[in-house]
């Protein structure tokens, strides 16, 4: 028979004290008195038959037994907390937390979310615009939308449409640079956020797709795709824009995409969620809306020649 574990309250008191190395701070975290916390740890030590802390004048330190217990206690409470949160999320059909990169959020998602919110007033939508790696099991996030080549092991991963890039500029700049050849003398804007793509989907690749030689010179570099597109809207230069980043500005006339050739990368935006959660009503509703919204503007690029960059 497995050995009976000590009371959970005593283990929780030990975990807090081991993390803070202070009974007073641990008691404050757990909202109990220092005396109550000390009593719980004493009972745990009696259960073990050995001290877990050395009590010093104004501090405590772990004994060898305490050092052995501390990592497992910490991991155990983290796992228990994550499992509890996940159980609550399974029962929650009204709240939805989504994370996406800042550029996609600013240029594509945020302008369209009113439509989703209006169609689903029962859903309490929370959005986190970040590229930070998230743990869908532990971080309280229901859906992540990410761009790249991720393997997404252990997740439901639904790829969006093929991703490609084409030059965009203001109508005034388009009149100044009417041909692909003339772009070699134009002020070019560089989106460094996609420098990880392999093969590269950059200006040399696009010019190569047009059958033109090009040696990169000076230009303006941005670390965020939305900043690069905003700079193009301001007339700073010509940007090589990704489809979701340029669609709204092209639709509303701030930018034009005059050359009907684009280079396609194998990287994709993916809709990610935990296995089994895809059937939850709010996740299913958001997934259906997300992919339907992409299809609404797919026809705009029907006359483009899309060239896979790996074929160049």
N-to-C CA distance: 66 Å
Largest sheet: 6 strands, mixed
User: How many DSSP H or I helices?
Assistant: 11
Strand content is 15-25%
Helical content class? 40-55%
Write down the secondary-structure element order: HHHEEHEHHEEEEHEHEHEHEEHE
Secondary structure tally: strands: 13
Please list the strands of the largest sheet in the order they lie side by side.
Answer: 9-8-10-7-11-13
Structural class, from secondary structure content? alpha/beta
Shape, principal axes of CA atoms: elongated
Q: Give the radius of gyration.
A: 27 Å
Average pLDDT taken over every residue: 92
- Unreliable runs, pLDDT <50, ≥5 residues? none
Description of the molecule:
The chain is elongated. It has 312 residues and is of the alpha/beta class. The strands form three sheets. The chain has a six-stranded mixed sheet with strand order 9-8-10-7-11-13, with helices on both faces. Helix content is 40%, strand content 20%. It is built from eleven helices and 13 strands. It has helices at 8-20, 23-30, 34-48, 64-91, 102-109, 113-119, 171-176, 203-209, 225-233, 243-251, 281-296; strands spanning 53-55, 60-62, 95-100, 124-129, 143-148, 156-159, 163-168, 188-191, 220-222, 238-242, 261-265, 268-273, 305-308.
């Amino acid at each position: 028979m497995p050995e009976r574990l000590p009371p959970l309250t005593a283990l929780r008191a030990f975990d807090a004290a081991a993390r803070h190395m202070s009974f007073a701070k641990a008691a404050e975290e757990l909202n109990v008195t220092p005396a109550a916390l000390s009593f719980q740890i004493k009972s745990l030590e009696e259960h073990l038959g050995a001290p877990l802390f050395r009590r010093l004048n104004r501090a405590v330190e772990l004994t060898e037994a305490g050092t052995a217990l501390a990592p497992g206690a910490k991991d155990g409470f983290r796992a228990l907390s994550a499992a509890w949160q996940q159980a609550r999320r399974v029962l929650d059909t009204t709240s939805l937390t989504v994370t996406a990169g800042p550029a996609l959020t600013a240029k594509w998602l945020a302008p369209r979310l009113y439509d989703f919110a209006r169609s689903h007033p029962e859903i309490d939508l929370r959005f986190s615009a970040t590229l930070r790696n998230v743990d869908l099991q532990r971080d309280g996030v229901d859906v992540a939308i990410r761009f790249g080549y991720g393997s997404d092991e252990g997740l439901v991963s639904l790829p969006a449409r093929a991703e490609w890039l084409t030059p965009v500029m203001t109508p005034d700049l388009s009149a100044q640079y009417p041909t692909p050849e003339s772009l070699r003398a134009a002020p070019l804007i560089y989106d460094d956020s996609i420098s990880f793509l392999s093969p590269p989907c950059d200006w040399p690749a696009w010019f190569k797709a047009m059958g033109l030689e090009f040696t990169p010179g000076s230009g303006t570099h941005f670390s965020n795709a939305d900043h690069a597109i905003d700079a193009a809207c301001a007339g700073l230069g010509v940007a090589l824009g990704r489809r979701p980043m340029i669609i709204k500005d092209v639709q509303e006339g701030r930018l034009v995409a005059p050359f009907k050739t684009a280079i396609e990368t194998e990287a994709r935006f993916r809709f990610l969620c935990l296995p089994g959660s895809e059937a939850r009503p709010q996740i299913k509703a958001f997934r259906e809306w997300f992919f339907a919204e992409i299809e609404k503007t797919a026809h705009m690029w029907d006359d483009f020649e899309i060239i896979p960059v790996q074929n160049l």
